[in-house]
Amino acid sequence: MKESGRKHGALSPCAACKLLRRRCAEDCVFAPYFPPDEPHKFASVHKVFGASNVNKMLQELPEHQRRDAVSSMVYEANARVRDPVYGCVGAISSLQQQIHSLQTQLAAAQAEVVHMRMRQFSSSSNTGGAMDMAVDQANMGESLWSC
Amino acid sequence: MGFVCTRSPCTENMASSSSYNSPCAACKFLRRKCMPGCIFAPYFPPEEPQKFANVHKIFGASNVTKLLNELPPHQREDAVNSLAYEAEARVRDPVYGCVGAISFLQRQVQRLQKELDAANSDLIHYACSEIPTALPAPPGPSSIQSMAPRQRLIDHYDRIGMGNEGGYYEAPAIPTPYNLPWNDNPSGDNSAAGGGSNM
Lengths: 147, 199
Prior knowledge:
The structure holds two protein chains of two kinds. By secondary structure, chain A is an all-alpha fold. Chain A folds into two domains: 13-81, no CATH class; 85-121. Chain A has helices at 15-20, 39-48, 51-59, 63-82, 89-146. In chain A, helix 2 crosses helix 4. Chain A is elongated. Chain A starts with 14 loop residues before the first helix and ends with a helix. Residues 1-9 and 140-147 of chain A have low confidence and may be disordered. Among the domains of chain B are: 25-92, no CATH class; 98-130. Chain B starts with 8 loop residues before the first helix and ends in a 40-residue tail after the last helix. Chain B contains seven helices and no strands. At the A-B interface, helix 2, helix 3, helix 4 and helix 5 of A face helix 4, helix 5 and helix 6 of B.
């Protein structure tokens, strides 16, 4: 009776109801996503978003999207607990800086590749020209002696 | 009742000016009197009602109050702005919020790193192909002869920034979010709760 409707099949209350000290109903919206063996997951989400906000947000989503929503909220909440000032906006800023740096390095490397290609092309062209000149000189020598 | 008001020189000045003129966006939204020293007043001006509306919807006014009270005053503005950013992202994308942006940026970093690796290996290829065509080293001990081409390669690497000082970009460790549906390279770590250490 208690197991029906609880996908994790546990008889103990979910981590959310444990923290909130309330009875874990069979249709508890938190139960599928906050198992009792991961109390820290709900603790950080509750601290940052609040249980009622999380409840509201989950209720507004179709069921198949709730797991991803919970995962992203857990990620954000953990980031905010670790960095109360910037949360995961700090990570976004850092990534944008990385991208800028990589783009600069890539542009420089690609310019160098073009430079090297042109150098190889011009050095192979010069080698062919020198040989033509040697043949012409040999021909000139013959014509001089023929006079 | 009401919100905990903390006193600090900057909040007092700004709060008193806003409360004389009009209540801050938070107190307006919550339909409360905006008291002098209101903790929200410096950061939620009345002309930006949506900012507080989003933050309240996602985080809740009391959670924001607690968070701001735990921070020194000089960090509160940045904290509010980052909360507002996250809240707006979550309102626009209720499933992934700003974690979607993090995943997108991480994929961009990976793509750029791959391209940079490819360009650098092209350069190594060109540098190696040049070495046999370089002028022969002057006669001398064999150790000097063997070092000359190697030194030219090292000099070339330094010139293009691949030496010890420049070169490959080492990204600081940022925990990869859990697997998003569009991830090409799943991180394999579905537990975002643990996270990494560098944020």
